[in-house]
Amino acid sequence: MKKYFSAIIVVFLGLLLTSCKKDYKLNTNIMPVSRLNAPVDEKYIKLQPATSASVSFEWEQARAEDGSLVLYEVVFDKEGGDFSDPVATISADGGGVQNKLTLSHKELNSMAGKAGIAALATGKLKWTVNASKGFNIKQALEIRTIEVERPNGFAEIPVDVYLTGEATETGSDLSKAIKLKSTAAGVFEIYTSLNDGKYHFVDRNTGTPTTYYIDGTTLKEGGESSQANGTKQYRLRLDFNNTAATVTEITAIGLWFAPENKILYDLPYAGNSTWSFKNQVITFHQESWGRDERYKFRMDVKSADGTASQEWYGSSNSDNNRPTATTPLSFWELKPVPNNDQYNYSFKFNGDVDTKNCDVNVYFAPDKNYTHEVIIK
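Now predict its structure.
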């Protein structure tokens, strides 16, 4: 009986497999999307990529002949394009299964930039929807256009920025390019020296990076900037959000000795974003109440138009105690101080500094917080 029952099962499975082999055929027939629903044709969108604003693209469902799942992609092209070489092709929400695509203003801004729409300009993007089942792809029966106004700034803001070129401290070797400090989203700066020659900025120090250069007060993509009239020190500040660049020449940095209301010593540039003086005597000032040791730093600067001014760097505290061996390193960090008050926001020397020869190093290195150190010889 068991053998008879087993034989029946084997025969049944054989027939089933034979039937599947004979009758099963993949049906990829689909009807294309018949209508695009949103946004309306020629919709005007003022892009605000710094916000969470988004745009929803919606369309009627396509139909598969066998009632199975259809996948969607939204295709974008330039105003005069025919979608043969689209600017972007993006899967619909839900892994491509929903008849909807949500794009942020940031993503649309990037897409507009790739389509050749310049910052602060207005241009158009065409869009349609491809429905697919297997290898069968059908373009929607309708095409629509959106008109976008781009804000100032680059469509793609780099994560990192490097300085390179013959005029820089490390030369034209891309692998040795100097990384800038990120001070805010899309804003970078570096304190450095430039020789006569060309220089530019890149978004990475390998391969074929995107390049940027300074043209007056504007940051542009591609090209090179020039340095002339000898070696000078600068603070170069780049704002990719607003395509802005600020070139500030640093003509001097001095140690401001508060009790004597003067520069005690100048700090010559030592290279690698560092200013230093070596082996100089520091003597505290005698007051009726004791020895005064307060100090900060004055930076003499010149703007691109030649206007001279001064900047002050000191402590984050308006007043301080003398540092000791256990004082945290953050004590020596340099902060722009609100004014040139003679005493407030000054550091204090360690008590052992009085009448000793010392080295003082000021670091505007991009890979750390701006700081300084005092070394007793």
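Residues 1-13 have pLDDT under 50 and may be disordered.
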